[in-house]
Write a structure and sequence with these properties.
The C terminus is likely disordered. The chain has 15 helices and ten strands. Strands 3-2-1-4-5 form a five-stranded mixed β-sheet. Helix 10 packs across helix 12. A hairpin with a 4-residue loop joins strand 2 and strand 3. The protein is of the alpha/beta class. The chain starts with a strand and ends in a 10-residue tail after the last helix. Among the domains are: 145 residues, 2-Layer Sandwich (Nucleotidyltransferase, domain 5); 87 residues, no CATH class.
C-alpha cells in the first residue's frame, strides 16, 4: 500500500480550502469551495461545502490512504451544538472514503499552526471578521473580539468595507469631499446593481444604468479626482439613497469586498482611506494588546487583510515592532496547510513534525521582525 498522506481543511465564512499532502509536506492536491461557517450558512450547507473542498483535494486518491485529517472550522461551537452534527459529519467523512479520525477544531487553531510551530503565542486575524487569541499548547485559551459583524470584528475586512460605504454616502450627499475612494465605491456598487437589474429585466433607472458610460472605478481602477462624476446621473441625496439600496440588496458580509478599494485609495493619499486604514490598524492592535503578548513568544497574523501585506498589515506590523520588540511575527498564509501540518503531527509525533513545519507552511519565508 502507498505511504499514508494527510489532509488539512481551513473552513471560513466565505471560503473553504483543503490540502492533501504527504507526511513530509509535499502537496498532492488542493480543493476550494464556498464558506462552511454554520453560523452563517446553516449546518447542512456548511457541511456540503466542506465535503466539496475535501473531495476536490482528494481527487483520485482513495480516502483510505489518508492517515490523518484535521478540520479547522469557523463557528465550530455552533455546529457542535447541533445534536445531529456528529452523525452528519461522520457520514460525510465516510462518504468521502476517510477511515481515519477527523478532529474538528477552531479555525483559530489551524491559523496559528500555519504561522509558527511553537505551541504558545498570540494570534491576530483580520479577514472577513476579526479576532485575537492567546494560544496555549496550540489551543485558544483566551479571546479578544470576534463578536461578528453586527457587534464586533473591529478592523476586519467587513468593518473596513462598511467604513468605505459610509464614506461614499457622506461624499454623495455633500457632507464630505468626493475623492478617489468614494468614486470607486459608488462605481463598484451602483454598476453592480445595474447589472443585476439588467439580468432580472428590471428597467428601473439607476445611477449607473447600462446605457451610461462605465466609470473606470468599476473595474477596480481609481480615476483621478478630476474625472469624478462621469457616468453617473444621480446627485446628492438621491445618489446616496441609491447606494444604500445597493448595499442592502447584497448579503451583509459582501461589504468586505470593498476593502481592496480602501487599500488602493490609501496608496493615492485619499483622506478617507488613510483614516480608515489608521482606525482599522488601531482597533486590531488594541485587540491584540488586551491579550498582552509575552516577550519572546510569536505573534501570528492571519486573514486576508493582513496576509495580503496591505497598508493595514504594514501599520499593525510596525506597531507590534514598537510595542513588543521581542516577539517574532509570522504570517498564517494558508490555514489549510497549518491543518495539514497538525494532521502530520498526529502521525509523526511532535519532534519529527516540527522539523517539517516550514515545508508545509512556508513559514521560514514568513517570519520577520518589524520596527
Amino acid at each position: 500500500m502507498a505511504d499514508p498522506c494527510v489532509v488539512g481543511l481551513d473552513v471560513g465564512g466565505s471560503h473553504s480550502r483543503a490540502v492533501l499532502a504527504t507526511v513530509d509536506g509535499r502537496t498532492l492536491g488542493t480543493g476550494h469551495a464556498g464558506g462552511g461557517n454554520p453560523t452563517v450558512l446553516g449546518a447542512a450547507a456548511a457541511v456540503a461545502n466542506i465535503v466539496a473542498a475535501l473531495r476536490a483535494a482528494l481527487g483520485d486518491v482513495p480516502g483510505e490512504r489518508v492517515g490523518a485529517c484535521v478540520v479547522g472550522l469557523a463557528g465550530v461551537s455552533t455546529l457542535m451544538a447541533d445534536p445531529k452534527a456528529p452523525r452528519v459529519l461522520e457520514q460525510a467523512w465516510a462518504d468521502a472514503g476517510l477511515t481515519c479520525p477527523v478532529p474538528v477544531v477552531s479555525d483559530v487553531t489551524v491559523s496559528f499552526a500555519a504561522g509558527t510551530p511553537a505551541p504558545d503565542g498570540t494570534l491576530l486575524v483580520s479577514g472577513t471578521g476579526a479576532v485575537a487569541a492567546r494560544m496555549r499548547d496550540r489551543l485558544p485559551a483566551r479571546f479578544s473580539d470576534g463578536y461578528g459583524w453586527l457587534l464586533g470584528d473591529e478592523g476586519s475586512g467587513f468593518w473596513i468595507g462598511r467604513q468605505a460605504a459610509r464614506a461614499a454616502i457622506a461624499a454623495a450627499d455633500g457632507r464630505r469631499p468626493m475623492a478617489h475612494l468614494a468614486t470607486a465605491v459608488l462605481a463598484r456598487l451602483l454598476d453592480q446593481r445595474s447589472e443585476q437589474e439588467a439580468e432580472s429585466g428590471d428597467p428601473t433607472p439607476t445611477a449607473a444604468h447600462p446605457s451610461a458610460p462605465v466609470h473606470p472605478a468599476a473595474t477596480g481602477a481609481l480615476p483621478p479626482a478630476a474625472s469624478i462624476g462621469e457616468g453617473f446621473t444621480l446627485r446628492g441625496r438621491k445618489r446616496a439613497a441609491e447606494l444604500v439600496r445597493a448595499v442592502t440588496a447584497q448579503p451583509t458580509v459582501a461589504l468586505a469586498g470593498l476593502a481592496p478599494l480602501v487599500m488602493a485609495a490609501y496608496e493615492l493619499g485619499d483622506p478617507a482611506a488613510v483614516r480608515i486604514v489608521a482606525e482599522a490598524a488601531q482597533a486590531l492592535v488594541e485587540s491584540l494588546a488586551t491579550l498582552a503578548p509575552a516577550p519572546g513568544e510569536p505573534v501570528v497574523l492571519g486573514g486576508s487583510v493582513l496576509v495580503s501585506r496591505s497598508p493595514v498589515f504594514q501599520a499593525v506590523a510596525a506597531a507590534i515592532g514598537r510595542r513588543w520588540p521581542d516577539s517574532p511575527v509570522g504570517l498564517a498564509a494558508d490555514g489549510a496547510a497549518g491543518a495539514a501540518w497538525l494532521a502530520a503531527r498526529r502521525l509523526l509525533g511532535a519532534e519529527a513534525a516540527a522539523a517539517g513545519h516550514a515545508v508545509f507552511t512556508g513559514a521560514n519565508h514568513q517570519f520577520a521582525e518589524f520596527s
